[in-house]
Design goal:
Blueprint: E1 2-8, H1 15-25, E2 33-39, H2 46-54, E3 60-65, H3 71-81, E4 86-89, H4 101-111, E5 115-123, H5 127-143, E6 152-158, H6 160-167, H7 176-182, E7 187-194, H8 206-220, H9 223-252, H10 260-292, E8 299-303
Parallel strand pairs: 1-2, 1-4, 2-3, 5-7
Antiparallel strand pairs: 3-8, 4-6, 5-6
Helix pairs in contact: 5-8, 9-10
Organism: Mariniphaga anaerophila
Keywords: Glycosyltransferase, Membrane, Transferase, Transmembrane, Transmembrane helix
Subcellular location: Membrane
C-alpha cells in the first residue's frame, strides 16, 4: 500500500481539487493507497471539506491537530500515522504536482532504491522567494560539506526501511529534508519544474522560511559555532598586534594621541562578544527545547 502524507493549513481553496487529482493519479500505480491529511490547526473550512470528501472516499485518513504546530511537526504526525509500505511526503499547495506521485512510485520500484526525491529543476515562484531559497541551498550545501541535496523539499517517496529510520528521530527542531539525507540509504532523484501556488496565499512567510533555514543550519552544521572560534582567534591576533604596535610607537615616540583608537578597539571587541553571545543563545535555546522533551504535536481527533 502507498500512503500519501499531506499537511494542510487553511487550504480550503485547494484541498478538494488536490484530493480529486490524487484519486485520479494514484490508481495508476496499481497498488492500494491511503491519503493521510493533517489539518494543522486550520481556521477556515479545510477540515469541513476534508470530512465532506471522506464521506465518498474511505481511503482518506484525517488527523486534526489541536492547534497549529508548524509544517515540520504536521508532516511528522502524518508519517507516524502512515501505514503503507511506501510513504509519499508532499506539500498541500499544489506546488508538488499530484501527477508525479506515480512517477515517484515507478522510479522507486524499478530502481530498487530506498528513497526517491523530487529535485526542482526550475521554480515558477516569485523572484524574491526564488532568490532567498537559492541562497539558502547554496549556503546549506557549503556548510554541510555537500552532504545535502540542493533544491529538494518535502516531496519524496520512502520505502519501509527509510520510513522506519526517519521515525527514530526525536528532535523537536527538525528539518525533514535534512533528516532524509542524513539517514543515508540508496537515494535516487527525479527532476521537475516546480509551479507557483495555484490559489490562495502562501503559508510559509518570510519569517517562517528564515526560521526553518536557521533550524536546518544549526541542526546539520557545526560552522556557526566554528565561525565564532575563528573570529575569536582573529580578535586575539589583532589584540596582540595592537600591543606590539603600541609598544613600538611608545619607544619611537609615535604613540597616537586621543580617544579614537581606544573607542574603535572597544567597539570591535564589544560587537564580537555580543555576536558570540547571540549565537550561543541560539544554541542554548535549541538545547532547552530538546531538554524540555515536550510532544511535537497533539492530535485532537483522527478520522479513519
Amino acid at each position: 500500500m502507498i500512503s500519501v502524507v499531506i499537511p494542510l493549513l487553511n487550504e480550503e481553496q485547494l484541498v478538494e481539487q488536490l484530493l480529486e487529482e490524487l484519486w485520479t493519479e494514484l490508481p495508476q500505480t496499481g497498488e492500494e493507497f491511503e491519503v493521510v491529511c493533517v489539518d494543522d490547526g486550520s481556521t477556515d473550512q479545510t477540515l469541513h471539506k476534508l470530512l465532506r470528501f471522506k464521506e465518498k472516499h474511505s481511503g482518506l485518513k484525517i488527523l486534526s491537530l489541536s492547534r497549529n504546530f508548524g509544517l515540520q511537526a504536521a508532516m511528522t504526525a502524518g508519517i507516524e500515522y502512515a501505514k503503507g509500505e511506501y510513504v509519499v511526503m508532499m506539500d498541500g499547495d499544489f506546488q508538488d504536482p499530484p501527477d508525479l506521485v506515480p512517477v515517484l512510485f515507478e522510479k522507486i520500484k524499478s530502481s530498487g532504491t530506498d528513497i526517491v526525491s523530487a529535485v526542482r529543476e526550475a521554480r515558477n515562484e516569485k523572484f524574491s522567494k526564488r532568490v532567498y531559497i537559492n541562497i539558502f541551498h547554496r549556503i546549506f550545501d557549503k556548510l554541510t560539506g555537500g552532504q545535502q541535496v540542493a533544491q529538494t523539499g518535502n516531496f519524496c517517496i520512502l520505502n519501509k526501511e527509510a520510513h522506519r529510520a526517519i521515525l527514530q528521530f526525536s528532535e523537536r527542531n527538525r528539518y525533514l529534508p535534512g533528516i532524509r539525507n542524513f539517514i543515508g540509504f540508496n537515494h535516487e532523484f527525479i527532476l521537475y519544474d516546480r509551479p507557483d501556488r495555484l490559489k490562495g496565499a502562501a503559508k510559509m512567510s518570510r519569517r517562517k522560511l528564515f526560521a526553518l533555514a536557521a533550524d536546518a543550519i544549526y541542526s546539520f552544521s557545526k560552522w556557526p559555532i566554528r565561525v565564532c572560534l575563528y573570529l575569536g582567534i582573529l580578535g586575539v591576533l589583532i589584540f596582540l598586534a595592537a600591543i606590539v604596535y603600541t609598544l613600538v610607537s611608545k619607544v619611537l615616540g609615535l604613540a597616537p594621541i586621543g580617544w579614537s583608537s581606544m573607542f574603535l578597539a572597544i567597539s570591535f571587541f564589544g560587537s564580537v562578544q555580543l555576536t558570540f553571545l547571540g549565537l550561543i543563545g541560539e544554541y542554548i535555546y535549541r538545547i532547552f527545547k530538546e531538554v524540555q522533551g515536550r510532544p511535537l504535536y497533539f492530535v485532537q481527533k483522527v478520522y479513519e
